[in-house]
Amino acid sequence: MALNTFQRTRLARVLNYQDARRLAKRTLPRAVFDYVDGGSEDEVTMRRNTQGFRDLRFRPRMGIWVEEPELSTTLFGQRLSVPVLTAPCGGLRLIHPAADIAVACAAASLGTISVASSASGFSLEAIAASSPDRHWFQLYRYLGRAGMESLVNRAKAAGYQAIVVTVDTQVGSKRERNFRNGFSFSMRVNAANALKLSPQLAPRPFWLARYVRDGMPFQLANTAAMTRDGAPLALPEMGRRESNSPTWADIAWVRQNFDGPVLVKGVLTAEDSRRARDLGCDGVVVSNHGGRQLDGAPATIEVLPEIVAAVGDTVAVLLDSGVRRGGDVLKALALGAKAVLVGRPYVWGLALGGQDGVSYMLEMLRAEMTRSMQLMGCSSVHDLDPTWLLRAASSGPQAG
Ligand SMILES: Cc1cc2nc3c(=O)[nH]c(=O)nc-3n(C[C@H](O)[C@H](O)[C@H](O)COP(=O)(O)O)c2cc1C
C-alpha cells in the first residue's frame, strides 16, 4: 500500500520515537492509542523500563574513527543485519489493515526477524507466506493444551524457525486506561459499542473509514482454524476457559515437539532462566511485557546482568521492554544480551505509514546505533561488554 503525500510528509517529520508516538496519538482513537501505549496499574514498571536505560551511561573511547560499525549478528545460525527483532504484538489490525504482514515484510526487508503473535490479526500461515523465511512464532496457550499443540504444529508446518513461549500473562492485567476508555477485547463490533465509543471515534474519521473498509476485525485470526464453524474467537472466550499462559509442563512439551530453537519470553529471574535452560530451551527473552502485566516488576535492563550471569554462557539471552533509542540497544548488548526486541516504537510507525512506517522506525534505530557507536569509538557490536558502561555508582566500569 503506497503512502499518500500526507502520510509521506508526516513520516518525514518524525525525528525520533517521541515524534512517532505523538503523531500516532493524533492518528488513532484514544482507546486504540492507549491500548498500545498503556501499561498496567500505576505504570511504574513501564516507566522504569525506559528510565533504566537512561540511568546507564557509556564510557566512550576517543581518537578512533569508525567508518562503518559492524551491527550484524547471528542468532541460531541465522544472520541478522541488526540485533533488533520486532516483538510479538497482538491486535494490530486495529492499528493498520496491513498489520502483522506489514511488520513481517518490514523486518525481512531490513534483514531481521519478526516474531508473529498468537494474537495476530492475520493467520500465522498468511504471515509466514507474506515474506521470506525470517519468522519466529510467539505461543500462547489458547484453548488449553490441545489448542496450544495445534498452534505449534501449524507453526511447524508453516516454516517458523523458532517458538517464543510467553509466560507472563497468567491473567489479564489491570490496564486502567483501557477500563477508562471502555476498551476491552470482550467487546463486540456492534452498534451499541460503536455508539459508546463514538466520542472517541468521531474525531478520527480516516482511521474509522480504514477500519470499516477492513471489515472491522476484532478477533483472533489464528483461532478460526480451531473452531467447528471456522469463526475466529474473541480473546475473552479463550480466557474464560483457561489461562493463556503456558506452564513449565507446557514448555517441556513444546521442547520435545519442536525441532528448532525454543525461547521463553517473560523471564525476570536467574531461577527461571536456569529452569528454561534445564528444560532444554535455547534462549530466554528478559521481558516484563513492556510494563503491561505485573506492575512492580523490575525494569528488564536492571535484571539482565543477573540472568546473563546465570545462563548467558549456555543459552541466548534476549531482552525487550523500554528499548527506544539505538543507544538503548547498545546498552543491552553491553550487559550481555545477544539481541533486543522492540514493541511500541514500530507499532507507532505502523499507525503512521503501514509497512513504510515500520521500516522507518527500524531504520531510525539502526542509524542511531551506527552514530552512537561512531561516537563511542566502537567498531563492532561484538566488542560491546560491561566496560563500555559506567557503573551505577559512577566510579568505574561495570563489573563483568
Ligand atoms: C499493543 C501490544 C500488544 C502486545 N501483544 C503481545 C502478544 O500478543 N504476545 C506477547 O508475547 N507480547 C505482546 N506484547 C508485548 C511485546 O511483545 C513486548 O514484550 C513489549 O511490547 C516490549 O516493550 P516495548 O513496547 O516497551 O518495546 C504486546 C505489546 C504491545 C505494545
Indicate the radius of gyration in whole angstroms. Answer: 20 Å
Element string (H = helix, E = strand): HHHHEEEHEHEHEHHHHHEHEHEHEH
Distance between the termini: 47 Å
Mean pLDDT: 93
| Residue runs with pLDDT of under 50 for 5 or more positions | none
Main sheet: which strands, in order across? Answer: 3-10-9-8-7-6-5-4
Total helical elements: 16
Q: Let me know the largest β-sheet.
A: 8 strands, parallel
Structural class: alpha/beta
Number of domains: 1
Q: List cofactors, ions and other ligands.
A: flavin mononucleotide
CATH 2nd-level architecture: Alpha-Beta Barrel
What do we call the CATH topology?
Answer: TIM Barrel
Shape: globular
Q: Given this structure, which CATH class is correct?
A: Alpha Beta
- Counted beta strands: 10
Helix content: 40-55%
CATH superfamily: Aldolase class I
